Fold these 3 entries.
Entry 1:
Amino acid sequence: MADLKSLYLFYGTDMTRVGSARKRIISRAKSEGSGPEVVEGDGCTPSLLADQILAAPLSIGRRYIVADGVETFKAGELKPLEKAVSAIPEDTTLVMLGRGKAVARLVKLVEAGGGEVRKFDAPKPWEMPDWVIRSAKEIGMDLDRAGAEELVACVGTSKEWSSQERLVRELEKIETAIGGGTVDREQVRELASGQTQFNAYEIGGALLSRERERALRLCDESLGSGEDTFKLVNLIARQLRNVLAARNLLESGHAAKEVQVKLRLSPYAVKHVMKQAKGADVSWLKQTVSSLAELEYSVKGGGSVDSGTSLVACLARAVDQ
């Protein structure tokens, strides 16, 4: 992006490269002293984006508009955006990001306007180790081939998008733990989480943010792939107990380092637990932890209970509280 164009479209199934493009343009905007205008979530629609383009700029100098979520755009909805793009000022740069497919009409719109289109395809399963090595370098780690293969084996490659997300999380966790530099297979074995632990962490996060559909989908996927129900329940319960304990310690005036020591967590884990704890509902946490403890006891004891169905029901009740 040395010589900036007015239009960019970055999309594809390699979400880390799409995310890196977002980080680069936002970093550039901030370095030039003009805060980027980020349009995302429910605000990222063709008509709302068109309104944003035509609105008066909020700062002096080059204007940066970042639209994250254009994979949801439909061809029949693009007329307002096409009109706005045709009138885009020379000192405005619009960067559109799509995590997945982009409709052909949007691609043509950018190309016809003299913009740049880049499609980032996710790596194939056999390409994952090389992808992991490159991703590690981006965050300051020199991961050898054996270590990359170990991490891929630990996380798995069953679904391209979810595998990439897990691999990036694991790389970030390893970088936090060792502070960058050279990483080998033994360090990966020591620090990387297995798939069950990752799934439990994601389900716990979905519960805390009350994302009912996501929590139940992740649970169904985990159980469908043969995850051990008792282990899954145990890990979800442990995560929420840590969040509850961290919340209590923070309210008692304990610093982050003290929370880490008392809960015996890694620097990576305590960072995320504390982030979750700050916005957590204590009474909800206590009730949910209690429900999971009862389920743990029931599943461990065996009997006639359908453990998978009971876990799904428990999660649904927790989100609906």
Entry 2:
Amino acid sequence: MKPGATVIDVGMNQVTTRAEFDRLFAGNKKREETFLAKGSTLVGDVHPEVAAVAGAITPVPGGVGPLTIAMLMANTVKAAKMRGKAEVRSQIAEVKTS
């Protein structure tokens, strides 16, 4: 990951074992209070240590909602299609110059 990047964590997972909690959040008292009270805690797909390198990271839970996820996916598909068209144009230009 590029230092300073913005990380949008759209994953939603549940940590239910103490061993997994300790692996991810050892020393995080606020998370531990939630874990002990509920018997679990919600986490994203991004490892917590990424926050030390990222410029910004969305929290889980509470960072993004269903509409944000839908728009992110729509934009990802759009970007992939645009990139594909650019690669095709590049290949056509190479053929013409050969």
Entry 3:
Amino acid sequence: MSTSTNAVQRALLQLHYTIPKELLYETFVNNQNTYRDETISLDERIKNIIIRSRVNVDCDFVGGNLIFIYIGDLFTEYVNPYTAIVRIPKSKTGGKTIISVLSVYNILEVGMATPGAANPFIENNLVLAGNAMMNAMASAPAIISAYLELIGENTVLIRQNTTLTNMNFIRCVLSNDEDMSNLQIRSILQYAKLVELAVKSYIYNFWVVKIGMGFLVGGKELGPFKDVVESYSDAEAQYQDYLVNTWGAVQFMNSNENYVEFIRALVGPMR
């Protein structure tokens, strides 16, 4: 995948245009106590410290990928007649982790017009196109009255259930993958901005105390180095605001399933 269409690589490239190279190296390379320092590149350090550990985790908190998973072919463990446990293998989630379960749908009650749910037994382009057309015109599908709870990785507890059949789907949210490959190209620049703010926040917190203690490099005052670091003093506040108010909306609209459900809720089904 080219740098221009890879969200993480584009974010790393953007950093080299917005933050002085010397400051990046001093923060993430020269002052990091890691084993075999010479083998880890600057970009890889930023990915480990900022992107994987913070930004992508925060992205999961504010939103993920909405998906409908067919569970009719999975073993259902009944704790009692009204409580069931379903373990969803990662082969059904593309190797991703479920971070939120929302509802259970019964396809029998709405025919083929269940959002995002193709016939699990017939999968070809004609059937998928027909399903998409029916989905666009259909009312909201029937939702089984049940309480859902994640009790383990990809393990769902369904309470007060009375209508589980072999034609049920779970509506849930999946985590983003490590490279944020699920992002559409128009969302990549906003993701890069989120990473930039996170890096600036880290740099400020990393250096502010050292600068206050009169940290010296080669026996000379930091000068412009200090000025740049201090200009990042509000980066954390900007990051938090951008994460919730801007990135949350971008990630919501990035999902086609979210967008379709939002439009259906606004205008209702076609008649």
